[in-house]
């Protein structure tokens, strides 16, 4: 891996390396919808550089960040250090490294493209399986949180995502869209459906 460098995104200094996802429009959309308060227990799956986890930790949230990519976990540790915050950083697949726990907030900007490029660690940043929704659907089926912030694309299988939400009783409370060329990104806040 080439060395780590430090850049700034959303007014936060972050560590990047050539195997980690550099924050982009999807990250910006996540920032537009996420809300977490001081002392809330937050789980972020797929922190990448750690930009979202660190910004929530800077607000006083207690953050656990799990990424499958070891270079992302390394970057998250570096980003936490340079911003002088503590985060529980775990390298692993979705929620498999932790015991069942109900978080206040769960965050996942998942790989959402219909690709299966798993021959490099960075490929896990965009490869959402055949439907583009496989990682998100698995995450939704495992996670327990009062509020969930996530994202999908017009290139992901929206019907499969909506069917899973119905199946597990989650409703969309907030939805924001961002157009990127021919693709639309949808940032969503999910809560338990009432009644
Ligand atoms: C689109 S990037 C988002 C990075 C960062 N959160 C951001 O918004 O800039 C998706 C991240 O999810 C991670 N990821 C993909 N599949 C995962 C899995 N099964 N378990 C944990 N992390 C995963 C990738 O390694 C990558 O860091």
Automatic annotation (TrEMBL):
GO terms for biological process: methylation. Belongs to the eukaryotic/archaeal PrmC-related family. The keyword Cell division does not apply. Keywords: Methyltransferase, S-adenosyl-L-methionine, Transferase. It comes from Sulfuracidifex metallicus DSM 6482 = JCM 9184. This is Methyltransferase. Gene3D superfamilies: Vaccinia Virus protein VP39. SUPFAM superfamilies: S-adenosyl-L-methionine-dependent methyltransferases.
